[in-house]
């Protein structure tokens, strides 16, 4: 039986006969829209011609599909030319004959012949097109109109045209925007879609280039608190165990979110809140990123990221924002309006969202599919980043030159666009998550039913019981005093890593784990995982958390887990937040290698009575309060002008003259300086009323210097203290004041009397430190139980 595939192009009609080309027709219709080449720079006219099989052959099929797509566009262009000569018609007939010669015995076995013929066919179509277009331009007199301009205002234009001539077929998106291989189409694209060439005088332009299109100003709408989560649950979707876990969590905490929303609504009064259009793209759960988390949800795998994402989604929904949720690259492309192709071209219009929450995986996917638009729109992005990204790693050029380049980081974002799970990196914003809050009745019940000699081990995977060296010795000590329980996942046999005296319950559902923690007196960590949500849940259920002290501290310099992460932070215990912000009696940090110290700690824990405790910032209300403040006040799309002290006048003065007195004055009962009340403070968030200016010791970071004084380092205030006024206020003796690019600046050397100011705002760093310099540090106050916000921030 003869099978036919009909390709119709006015005024040409080509009938293709043959079993072999039936396969190509099937590829073109069934696969053409689904596959793309792996390498962005590959031309669809270039393909390896050796016989391949398996995975490699599928890659070749994708190449063939791309080539056919381009060929069809070229032939469609030819069909619209009214100057086709008899020679062109003859060449098209030859193409038809070439197509008819496809007669491979099998698609995979004879893929070499298909690939070579398609390549030849593509090249011949291109030759005919170029010839016909040139003839048409000569007759129409448009050749002069499409000469490449030499304009000093657009110095990159000639180079970009050369690039387009050589590579315009590397991405179908160029054809989507009308590029057809002619210089005219290159110049139209480079002046109207991108911005590298000047506008063409003969074009009837009614709008500026895509890259310069301003975000459409839609009328502001007021956000209203929501307590019904049914719409959110539907948006989250299904089909993965990770999504089911997130939905179970959202349902379980629904009443607490509703109560928190009502409380915050009362606290904020009738204050207007802008409703934002927000896209949440959970990159690490997409199939394209590999999604190694979903299959492990029921096998003891890490849940912290899913806990945080579920709470972020709920907080944004409850706050009343217009939310879209993406769990795949296809969803991402649809929501953003990405043109078809491989991401080389910009978006077709303004960004349809005010904010985009994603992670590092999602950021990489956005880069791949948004092309040039990412640079323009990246100020709208917020990156959920568990362990934080320090400024030295975030600045691409600086990181590359000074040894801070890793597989993450280097995105040149404002460091506050990274949002962490715990407030360990003040250069970033603290997003956090929530832990279940108990009412007074539940708290009393827990205290009455505590089993004084019961301990639960923090470690759901058997591998965690392997990691801690000397585990057997301290577990033996613990076993002397307490009944030890575990929640280690297993399928059929008890994990051999778990000692026989441990009562292993297996992996428990969340509500059963809660009941176990409500009975236990002690929750004990082995040193891994770092900074997870479980210790806070245990403390909230009345447990004392015992954790190991790290000597020396763990960091990217000495520990495999942190190696490659964009931070130099030193971790002195398994859960630094619990140690620093909660502390005794709820948290005890000891040296597990010291058996006497460990033994003493167990005895102390058995004697100590504690009430369930949960920091306010990890309650539903605390998270709503924090996320509300970020959404309404953080705006990284508005350029921050350099702060020039001479531009600010004294209160009541009409002229902008340098004030007679200092900008920074001593604060009563403190060694820090604050903003003077005699000078009008520039508008900022956090407001300058929260500023506390002080200096660090040599080798001390601003993170530690501020924390030692009872404050938090505030990177938003760096631009107000990066000047001689602050040095003068701190009575720093400077013989030389230089402006440089270095992440420890502003700082000064006491020995050499050298002072340095920061020249690159992206490198303002709370974390930077040097043994030779003392840092000039912008600290701030903070609300009780909410370190992310200053006292006047809400």
Would you give an account of this structure?
The termini are far apart. Among the domains are: 38 residues, no CATH class; 202 residues, no CATH class; 174 residues, Rossmann fold (3-Layer(aba) Sandwich); 117 residues, no CATH class. The protein contains 27 helices and 23 strands. The chain is an alpha/beta fold and 794 residues long. The strands form 5 sheets. Strands 9, 10, 11, 12, 13, 14 and 15 form a 7-stranded mixed beta sheet that branches. It has a 6-stranded parallel beta sheet with strand order 4-3-5-6-7-8, with helices on both faces. Strands 18, 19, 20, 21, 22 and 23 form a 6-stranded mixed beta sheet that branches. It is globular. A hairpin with a 4-residue loop joins strand 21 and strand 22. Helix 1 crosses helix 2, helix 2 runs parallel beside helix 4 and helix 3 runs antiparallel to helix 4. The N terminus is likely disordered. Helices cover 36% and strands 13% of the residues. This is alpha-1,6-mannosyl-glycoprotein 6-beta-N-acetylglucosaminyltransferase. It comes from Austrofundulus limnaeus (Annual killifish).
């Amino acid at each position: 039986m003869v099978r036919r595939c009909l390709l119709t192009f006015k005024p040409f009609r080509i009938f293709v006969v043959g079993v072999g080309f039936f396969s190509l027709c099937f590829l073109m219709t069934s696969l053409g829209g689904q596959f793309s080449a792996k390498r962005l720079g590959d031309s669809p006219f270039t393909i390896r011609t050796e016989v391949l099989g398996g995975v490699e052959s599928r890659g070749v099929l994708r190449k063939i599909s791309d080539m056919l797509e381009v060929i069809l566009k070229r032939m469609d262009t030819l069909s619209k030319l009214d100057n086709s000569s008899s020679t062109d018609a003859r060449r098209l007939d030859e193409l038809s004959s070439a197509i008819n010669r496809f007669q491979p015995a099998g698609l995979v076995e004879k893929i070499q012949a298909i690939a070579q013929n398609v390549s030849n066919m593509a090249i011949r179509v291109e030759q005919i097109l170029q010839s016909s277009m040139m003839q048409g331009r000569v007759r129409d007199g448009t050749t002069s109109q499409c000469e490449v301009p030499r304009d000093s205002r657009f110095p990159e234009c000639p180079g970009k045209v050369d690039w387009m001539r050589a590579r315009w077929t590397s991405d179908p998106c160029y054809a989507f925007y009308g590029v057809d291989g002619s210089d005219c189409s290159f110049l139209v694209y480079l002046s109207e879609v991108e911005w590298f060439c000047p506008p063409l005088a003969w074009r009837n332009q009614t709008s500026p280039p895509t890259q310069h299109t301003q975000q459409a100003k839609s009328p502001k709408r007021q956000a209203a608190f929501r307590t019904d989560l049914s719409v959110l649950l539907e948006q989250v979707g299904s089909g993965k165990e990770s999504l089911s876990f997130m939905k179970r969590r959202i349902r379980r905490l629904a009443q607490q979110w509703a109560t928190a929303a009502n409380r915050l609504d009362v606290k904020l009064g009738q204050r207007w809140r802008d409703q934002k259009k927000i896209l949440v793209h959970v990159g690490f759960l997409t199939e394209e990123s590999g999604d190694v988390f979903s299959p492990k949800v029921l096998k003891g795998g890490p849940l912290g990221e899913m806990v945080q994402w579920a709470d972020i989604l709920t907080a944004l929904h409850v706050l009343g924002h217009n939310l879209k949720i993406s769990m795949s690259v296809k969803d991402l492309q649809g929501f953003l309006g990405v043109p078809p192709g491989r991401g080389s071209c910009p978006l077709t219009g303004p960004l349809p969202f005010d904010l985009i929450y994603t992670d590092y995986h999602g950021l990489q996917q956005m880069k791949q599919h948004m092309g040039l638009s990412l640079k323009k729109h990246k100020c709208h992005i917020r990156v959920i980043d568990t362990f934080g990204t320090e400024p030295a790693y975030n600045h691409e050029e600086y990181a590359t030159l000074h040894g801070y380049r890793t597989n993450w980081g280097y995105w040149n974002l404002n460091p506050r666009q990274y949002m962490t799970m715990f407030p360990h990196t003040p250069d970033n914003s603290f997003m956090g998550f929530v832990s279940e809050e108990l009412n007074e009745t539940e708290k009393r019940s827990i205290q009455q039913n505590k089993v004084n000699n019961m301990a639960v081990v923090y470690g759901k995977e058997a591998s965690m019981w392997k990691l801690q060296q000397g585990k057997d010795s301290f577990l033996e000590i613990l076993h002397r005093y307490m009944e030890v329980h575990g929640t280690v996942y297993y399928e059929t046999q008890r994990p051999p890593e778990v000692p026989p005296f441990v009562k292993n319950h297996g992996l428990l559902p969340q509500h059963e784990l809660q009941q176990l923690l409500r009975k236990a007196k002690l929750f004990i960590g082995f040193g891994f995982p770092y900074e997870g949500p479980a210790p806070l849940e245990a403390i909230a259920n009345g447990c004392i958390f015992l954790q190991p002290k790290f000597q020396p501290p763990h960091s990217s310099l000495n520990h495999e887990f942190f190696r490659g992460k964009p931070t130099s932070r030193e971790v002195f215990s398994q859960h630094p937040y619990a140690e620093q912000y909660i502390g005794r009696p709820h948290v005890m940090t000891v040296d597990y290698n010291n058996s006497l110290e460990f033994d003493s700690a167990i005895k102390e824990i058995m004697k100590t009575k504690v009430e369930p405790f949960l920091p306010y910032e990890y309650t539903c209300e605390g998270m709503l309060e924090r996320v509300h403040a970020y959404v309404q006040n953080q705006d990284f799309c508005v350029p921050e002008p350099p702060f020039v002290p001479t531009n600010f006048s004294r209160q009541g003065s009409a002229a902008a003259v340098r004030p007679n007195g200092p900008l920074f004055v001593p604060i009563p009962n403190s060694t820090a300086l604050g903003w003077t009340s005699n000078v009008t403070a520039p508008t900022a968030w956090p407001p300058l009323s929260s500023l506390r200016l002080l200096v660090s010791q040599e080798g001390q970071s601003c993170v530690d210097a501020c924390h030692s004084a009872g404050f938090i380092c505030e990177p938003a205030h760096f631009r107000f203290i990066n000047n001689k006024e602050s040095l003068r206020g701190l009575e720093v003796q400077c013989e030389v004041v230089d402006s440089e690019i270095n992440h420890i600046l502003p700082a000064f050397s006491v020995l050499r009397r050298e002072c340095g100011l920061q020249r690159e705002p992206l490198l303002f760093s709370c974390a930077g430190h040097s043994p030779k310099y003392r840092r000039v540090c912008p600290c701030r106050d903070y609300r009780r139980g909410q370190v992310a916000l200053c006292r006047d921030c809400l």
